[in-house]
Design a protein that fits this description.
The protein is of the alpha+beta class and about 425 residues long. It contains 12 helices and 13 strands. The structure holds adenosine-5'-diphosphate.
């Protein structure tokens, strides 16, 4: 028991004793005790009421004169209250600092709860995406920023994926968005202004497309004359070889320009339609027939492990198969084997081209889909490669929400696996396939 509590108890006992004593002097000790007890009770009630009033009004001046245990309770309360006020001030200062630093960030940051509702955002989010800190609080972010890609990103819960979306503020702005986990059950939507990068990449795309287009007409004229020249009966013997070489190079240039234009078209186009379905097994069989039987071509087999159809663009997927197959044919000796496989599962479907050819060094694998990248430059040119085949494959796959996984072992062969997500695959029971 504290000193103050002891004093209070002693005080009460004393008053009761005095009351009983006075009562005893008048021959009525119980009445004296009762009067003293009522006096004690009234005194305590008075202290309690003034303490309650002080709590209610926040004005403790009236309560300065609390006594005994009340005085102690009062000073304890005041100490705690001062500490809470100090802490609140500190937290407020800290919060102000954090807000200042998040507001100084050039990237937009939006705090979302588990239902993708806005909890808060920084100044850059307001400037880049037009979000209003107070008015938009509690609203679903995908109801305010309406972009199918963003909706998909928020649903995917994939913390490595990023998307580009047009900024709803101003004209022609672009934002790169990603989601990262934050706190308990919350997420942070980060937005970066990539307008300049997008503009530059569009300029590059337009330049390549325009240059390819402009070069096509003069090249058509040159190769037309070369064809006429090659057919001329009175051509001097010494000219035959150079003219044939010029003809071959002109055709090669035509092929490169055609592929560059194809790449530009693929880059500019959005996602491939989900409405058309492709019978992949049939496509693999057709491609196999187009390649096999030629001299120097290895044995080609088709492994149809699924009858599932693929949602997408038939001619683009055919381009993927033809490019992968023609690479396999060019890099696999006649006594090797090439396998075209199609399999599906719960996570999606895989189109796989495997060969037992020369293989690729691990250091080159990440660069294979770069434009004009070749492992062996001289050889690739000689065997008709443009260096654009795998870049085209990659862009077609991007349009089909798919990715390319390459694995290879030098001297043993390579595997090119195109992975399509489940929403691009339509399952067909084997019985329905004739
Ligand atoms: P290219 O038209 O030169 O074949 P690609 O873009 O199709 O260009 O391929 C890039 C490079 O990747 C090729 O030059 C080749 O060196 C390598 N490559 C592609 N496929 C295979 C394969 N199946 N086996 C070995 N190397 C390959």
């Amino acid at each position: 028991m504290s000193e103050a509590a002891r004093k209070t108890v002693l005080g009460i006992v004393l008053i009761l004793a005095i009351g009983a004593g006075i009562g005893w002097m008048y021959g009525r000790p119980e009445t004296g005790l009762l009067i003293a007890a009522v006096a004690c009770l009234l005194w305590q009630i008075r202290q309690l009421l003034s303490f309650e009033r002080a709590l209610r009004t926040g004005d403790f001046d009236d309560f300065r004169h609390g006594e005994g245990i009340w005085e102690q309770m009062f000073s304890r309360f005041q100490f705690e209250r001062d500490r809470a006020v100090r802490r609140k001030k500190e937290y407020r200062g800290l919060l102000r600092e954090i807000r200042k630093s998040t507001n100084a960030m050039p990237d937009g940051a939006v705090i979302l709860d588990a239902d993708n509702e806005i909890v808060g955002c920084n100044r850059a989010a307001k400037e880049l995406a037009g979000l209003r800190r107070k008015k938009d609080r509690g609203q679903r972010v995908d109801n305010i920023l309406r972009d199918p890609e963003l909706t998909r990103l928020l649903l995917a819960n994939d913390y490595t994926a990023t998307i580009n979306m047009a900024s709803p503020v101003g004209h022609g702005g672009w934002l790169n968005c990603r989601v990262v986990p934050y706190g308990a059950d919350q997420k942070l939507l980060l937005m970066r202004d990539v307008t300049d990068r997008m503009r530059l990449s569009k300029m590059r795309r337009d330049f390549v497309a325009n240059a390819s287009h402009e070069l096509r007409s003069p090249l058509t004229v040159i190769s037309g004359y070369l064809d006429t020249l090659a057919e001329a009966e009175d051509m001097p013997a010494g000219w035959i070889k150079p003219v044939m070489q010029m003809q071959a190079q002109a055709n090669r240039m035509k092929m490169i320009l055609g592929e560059l234009l194809q790449l530009s078209r693929l880059e500019a186009a959005g996602p491939a339609s989900l409405d058309d379905t492709i019978d992949v097994v049939q496509l693999l069989e057709r491609s196999k027939q187009a390649f096999e039987g030629h001299a120097h071509v290895a044995a080609i087999g088709v492994l149809a492990e699924s009858a599932a159809r693929l949602r997408g663009n038939q001619s683009e997927i055919e381009t993927v198969v033809v490019n992968l197959l023609s690479n396999a044919v060019r890099h696999t000796p006649r006594d090797g084997t090439i396998t075209l496989a199609w399999r599906s599962g719960a996570k999606g479907a895989d189109l796989i081209v495997t060969d037992t050819g020369e293989g690729i060094d691990a250091e080159f694998i990440p660069r294979l889909t770069e434009r004009f990248f070749r492992v062996d430059k001289g050889r690739s040119r000689d065997d008709g490669g443009t260096g654009l085949g795998l870049a085209i494959v990659k862009h077609v796959l991007v349009r089909h929400d798919a990715d390319l996984v390459v694995s290879s072992e030098p001297g043993r062969g390579s595997t090119f696996r195109c992975r399509f997500p489940a929403d691009r695959v339509v399952d067909v029971p084997i019985a329905e396939v004739s």
